[in-house]
Amino acid sequence: MNSINSYIENNKERFLNELIDLLKIPSISADSAYKGEVKKTAEAVKEQLELAGCDKVEIHPTNGHPIVYGEKIIDPNLPTVLVYGHYDVQPPDPLDLWDSEPFNPVIKPTALHPEGAIFARGACDDKGQMYMHVKALEYMVKEQKLPCNVKFMIEGEEEVGSEHLAGFIKANKDKLKNDVILISDTGMIAKDVPSITTGLRGLSYVEVEVTGPNRDLHSGLYGGAVANPINILSNMIASLHDENNHITIPGFYDKVEELSDEERAKMAEAPFSLDQYKASIDIDAVHGETGFTTNERNSIRPTLDVNGIWGGYIGEGAKTVLPSKAYAKISMRLVPNQDWEEITALFQSHFERIAPKSVRVKVTPHHGGQGYVTPIDSIGYQAASKAYEQTFGKTPIPQRSGGSIPIVALFEQELKSKTILMGFGLDSDAIHSPNEHFGVWNYLKGIETIPWFYKHFAELSQ
Amino acid sequence: MNSINSYIENNKERFLNELIDLLKIPSISADSAYKGEVKKTAEAVKEQLELAGCDKVEIHPTNGHPIVYGEKIIDPNLPTVLVYGHYDVQPPDPLDLWDSEPFNPVIKPTALHPEGAIFARGACDDKGQMYMHVKALEYMVKEQKLPCNVKFMIEGEEEVGSEHLAGFIKANKDKLKNDVILISDTGMIAKDVPSITTGLRGLSYVEVEVTGPNRDLHSGLYGGAVANPINILSNMIASLHDENNHITIPGFYDKVEELSDEERAKMAEAPFSLDQYKASIDIDAVHGETGFTTNERNSIRPTLDVNGIWGGYIGEGAKTVLPSKAYAKISMRLVPNQDWEEITALFQSHFERIAPKSVRVKVTPHHGGQGYVTPIDSIGYQAASKAYEQTFGKTPIPQRSGGSIPIVALFEQELKSKTILMGFGLDSDAIHSPNEHFGVWNYLKGIETIPWFYKHFAELSQ
């Protein structure tokens, strides 16, 4: 299958130009003013899937943005890969921090990408990574190298919470039947360090409100005698971690999965410089749970962070107010087996229980999602690992991501299959930020690696 | 001296009308657009002091608003009372919450004031309370009852920090020489419970900034491994009190004055219903330092309150950010003998010392002032106490106020004399708020009580 390299060599200008055309359409799912552009993008994806060799390509309307579906069934007895991706993008704000127009893609070299990177909103997340799969399919169909069946499900609401995807999946379980789900919407450790994301954290996001007196009071006249909701909220937040930075909510760790020694040892193989890490965000020391490394703390361990806090007088100068209320937004990242709804309920009852009688507390659950993990001994993982070995010349490192992609857990629940996360992006790609970009090398390397996954997956499935 | 009652009876309409005329001038010191009105008010005060019998009445210009000075020296060998007050007022905003125009005074009955209250900005704070002294002087001069010398110093910048008063005092120590300073700019416990404010708390106000990473991070990717400045700030704030609600800053209590049993017992005589207190601000329990009552906690004990806190995402909905910075405004109310600059320095070094290495902390001192206390065995206090006994038929209760009037400490430092705070306002007068008012009964009771103070002070000073 070395022909993939020559196929890329002969077609790379077209591969880049087609992606650039797709990036020019501002498919901002969060902004209803762009509804027409989102639809236009769905139509462009449909057209490209057809050109790549997909059959039965359809645009499924939803109450939000449409889902594009297509398939290439070569033999019902062969295994089936379901590719998931999304064609919608984050809003490009703040616009003034972009060096070029977010929807007028340009290719420029960078220190990490001397061969050039495509700068545009969605270049990496996820139009670029999704389109690698379309081009890999094109190669396999044109060169008759497709070893199994393939289905595509490309949605337009990932950046706004995939609201209508669950309904589509539940209504189309037969159509979406598959043996493995393949997604490129994550990153790898470095250009020369391939990695496969084997875990995602779940999420529970809540907002808390602490009420003291029924109105703002003069802190001189009442201070010291009446509970100050900011002080109380600070106490309550502080009490959520113990001196080892363990979370103190009773039952919080009950279902936390203990990682196998093998996977933990593999994780530790990932090249990591604590000095570089600290320097990159300008901190003097890291901070986290006793007994775990930095890379473990932000991936295989559950955490609790305050994402926002406010109360009292926050303008210029001074006001001696003892406020009536204080608020915080708190999120917990969860690991596989922790159920986000159960954790949300544990948080709520704990937070209410620890409140002193001098205040009233309201906890409002916001949203959440389950964590996810793929065992590294699965056929899907092994096929991906072999594919990277072939194109990078080294075994990829299994990597737990600290982030959350709640739909992956949904896929497993509804479709009963595991997801393989083959990401080709880099942390420096600035997804969700100004000057998002995707290395040309990464884009083409993805197109090169994906057909090897199909080959090994089909062989290992026999 | 029962003639004061008939004098008031014969002149009360005029006393009210003169005050109403003064209240009509919008002397808003904070707003430079009202500079001319503030000056007009100073001129009106000058005129009234002259009419009441003061000599050498002058308007002293400052770089801000002018100070009005006047005196009536009947015998250099007799003691001298210095009356301090202010003719400037707080801004009336929010205007839409006023039931009548703030500078168009009206007299209306209320539940607490069936005989009527004057509704206007400054009615109680401090034009009304200051003017009681002008009318008491008028009576004593006209009826030849003035038993000692009197000086008036009425300023126009109290509501904006008395910026130019210190300079005036330091430059005029001889002119202002006195044996006691008399101020009516506080309140009393209830209409039938006279009280004398014997203490004011000092203040130290600081702003703190906690910096973690140099930019906002994704809480999924970094959460658990990098110190979250909001969580750290919450921990640091929580650690500023121990389980008995004592403040943990080393040295904080070193100079705290222990109250005499006599004064503490007198304080406890003040009528106080904890149930009513809790109901008035809708709380289920009070909260404060172990070993002290509610009235002690908010007056004779130093306290630490967070007046404002902010950091991270505080808009609608959710954002999973691990913010770079978190902030708080923190104020400490201090008791006599605690030096506010020393306490500010203690806070700063403690707060910097307790910060973990994973964050950087900046403490910015904002402003402050010294606390103040008048001993209840002083001649001034005894004279005031006897005056109240005469007009209220009961001994007034010494009361520590939790609030701060930094100039009182300045008076003692520069003029070496004690201040007696004879307040006739009520908590319900809504000073600094919409619908500020002052009971007609309270206004006239002040005019009635003040001459008795002079009589007793002169007699006790012999």
UniProtKB/TrEMBL annotation, chains A, B:
Coiled coil: none annotated. Residues 199-357 form the Peptidase M20 dimerisation domain. GO terms for molecular function: metal ion binding; peptidase activity. The keyword Zinc does not apply. GO terms for biological process: proteolysis. Keywords: Hydrolase, Metal-binding, Protease. Pfam families: M20_dimer, Peptidase_M20. It comes from the Bacteria. NCBIfam families: PRK07907.1, PRK08201.1, PRK09104.1. This is Peptidase M20 dimerisation domain-containing protein. It comes from Mangrovimonas yunxiaonensis.
